[in-house]
Design a protein that fits this description.
The chain is 24% helix and 24% strand. The protein is an alpha/beta fold.
Length: 189
C-alpha cells in the first residue's frame, strides 16, 4: 500500500459523525410587510413608491427622473430593438425599468431573472434603476425566497438591493461605482 493510500485510508477512518442541518424554525416568524421591506430598502439608500397599477409606473419614473433622455422598459410586451443590440449600446440608458419577481424584507433585495431584464447588463449599466414588484410578493427572509425560486430557469438570476455603492479605505462612499446610481422600487398591489 502506498503512502497516498495510507493517508486516504486514515482520513476515511477519521471522519466526524454526520449531523443534521440546523433547524430553520423561527425564521419564518420574521415580518414580511411592505412597511418592513420599505424600512430596510430605504436604509440601503433606495426609494420605495407605491402605485395603483402598472400604468402608473411611467408617471412615477417621470416624477423621479424628469431629465432622463433614454428610458428602457424591459416590461414592455413589444420587443424593442435594444434587446438584440450589443449590450455596450445600452451605455447611454438613463433609466431601466424591470419587473422583480420577489422582494425580501430581511435585506431589501429584489429577485430578477434574465427573462425579466431581457439583457443581463441592463440593471447594471443604467444610471437609474426602477424595479417593479407586487406587494403580495414580499417575503420575510432569503430562506423564503429561495424556497419560492427553486433555482432560476433562465440560466441567470440576481438579487439587487439598493443602489450600487462602494467605499474605499478613506471612508469615501461612492454611489454608482459598478451599477445604478439610484434605485426606485415601485410596489404594486
Amino acid at each position: 500500500m502506498s503512502s497516498r493510500d495510507n493517508i486516504l485510508k486514515a482520513v476515511k477512518n477519521n471522519q466526524p459523525e454526520s449531523t443534521g442541518l440546523p433547524s430553520l424554525a423561527g425564521l419564518s416568524d420574521m415580518p414580511d410587510t411592505l412597511e418592513d421591506y420599505k424600512r430596510v430598502v430605504e436604509g440601503l439608500g433606495a426609494v420605495v413608491a407605491e402605485a395603483d397599477d402598472a400604468a402608473a409606473v411611467s408617471a412615477l419614473v417621470q416624477k423621479h427622473f424628469p431629465d432622463s433622455k433614454r428610458i428602457v422598459d424591459a416590461r414592455s410586451a413589444v420587443q424593442p430593438g435594444w434587446i438584440h443590440e450589443d449590450p455596450h449600446s445600452l451605455e447611454d440608458v438613463d433609466v431601466a425599468i424591470v419587473n422583480g419577481q420577489w422582494a425580501v424584507a430581511e435585506n431589501g433585495a429584489v429577485w430578477l431573472t434574465e427573462a425579466d431584464m431581457k439583457v443581463r447588463a441592463l440593471p447594471f449599466i443604467c444610471q437609474f434603476l426602477v424595479l417593479v414588484v407586487s406587494r403580495t410578493r414580499i417575503l420575510a427572509t432569503m430562506h423564503d425566497a429561495y424556497e419560492k425560486i427553486q433555482g432560476p430557469d433562465t440560466g441567470f438570476g440576481v438579487f439587487i438591493a439598493g443602489p450600487s455603492k462602494t467605499a474605499d479605505i478613506e471612508q469615501s462612499l461612492v454611489l454608482g461605482a459598478h451599477g445604478a446610481r439610484s434605485l426606485l422600487v415601485v410596489v404594486l398591489p
